[in-house]
Model the fold of this input.
Amino acid sequence: MADWNAALYRQFEQERTRPAQELLNRVTLGNPRAIVDLGCGPGNSTELLVQRFPKAEVLGLDTSDDMLASARARLPGCRFIKADIAAWQPDQAPDLLYANAALQWVPDHARLFPHLLSLLAAGGCLAIQMPDNLDEPSHRLMRAVAAQGPWASLIGDAGAKRAKRQPATAYYDLLARAAEIDIWQTTYHHLMPSAEAIVSWVRATGLRPFLDPLPPEMQSDFLTAYQREIEAAYPPHADGMRLLAFPRLFIVARRKR
Done:
């Protein structure tokens, strides 16, 4: 895929940071020495880690040059590196591996999750938050519009860009033998002023695999068709606002000593 757009992602930074904070609230560690933000994005989640654990060494990693540039500008005192989560190896066993809205883009969770847990120091935490919204209208309509238009052959199976989703029970079973697990789901209802705003939200993330294969003029046509469907799927409420339902899955796994 093309590089991420940090500025577009930050348009809804407050809403995107809320689940990151709520994930961190459930992490119970005293004085971690080494923390890694897996898929740090523009540094909003890394900033939470620095504020919560000011004495820790915090490393952020991402595959996006634009996201990393934004993170470095935001937190010049932190170290950020370009790396693939699936292949990365730490120099020392971290006390906290923190992944906010990142692992849905990394394949083979059956291998990945136990692998990440194994990288931790004894008693360390693997904290994960992932969108669980593939069945929401926002994402069902991406796939429907992609399949119906003149762009279908160019887009192909864009949904395969995201890792195959597992139920919460499957993730529990992947980690439970080696960790104490706290796992839960939350559905946020984000207030959005228009259908266009909803499209802007998902354009920064879920829509990327659908738009990247298309030439600019076809991207515009796709977005017009998609927004028309979003307009109908998310009607205005009594105050004119639209509610974007956004389910998310949270996992905090503390490695057994």
Observations:
- The domain at 6-255 is CATH 3.40.50.150 (Rossmann fold).
- The first helix runs from residue 6 to 9.
